What does this fold into?
Amino acid sequence: MKKLIVLVLLIAALAVSPVLAADNGAGRTKAGTILGRGFFATAGFPMGKTTELNVYAGTGWNFNEVTLGANYLFRLVDIDIEGETFPLSLGPQADISFGYYNGVVLGVFADLRWEYTFDFPLNLFIEIGPGIDIAMYNGGTTMGFGWRGGLGARYVF
It folds into this structure.
């Protein structure tokens, strides 16, 4: 299982490399970690002034599975607190987890993120996303409420 996790993270890093190299130098591409319903490496890519594509890879809830996912966030509002801007974003999120009781879990969520970017290259955020998990394992399929979320820290390029 450890070899599979390392392989998935390596493939994710290699897949993200061309996108990072193609960045327009605007200084808005972000990479870091999320700790919450698992531990993930994450990267965020601006798709416009008010949208961002985020990808992540890491361990799932019980650290016995590998999860790959993405979300596409739309900035709803910039909350002003004492002259500082805290964007609040919402968007769809989907992921797939391998290893859950030797099965697969597909998830679809509505992700809400509140973040802050410092004057130096650090971005902190908190996010939560309720949704639906579809688990396929032991010859059966179940569907139920799920959630994703956590605290994140990313370096801003």
About this structure: The mean pLDDT is 85. The beta strands are 30-36, 38-46, 51-59, 66-81, 84-100, 103-117, 122-137, 140-156.
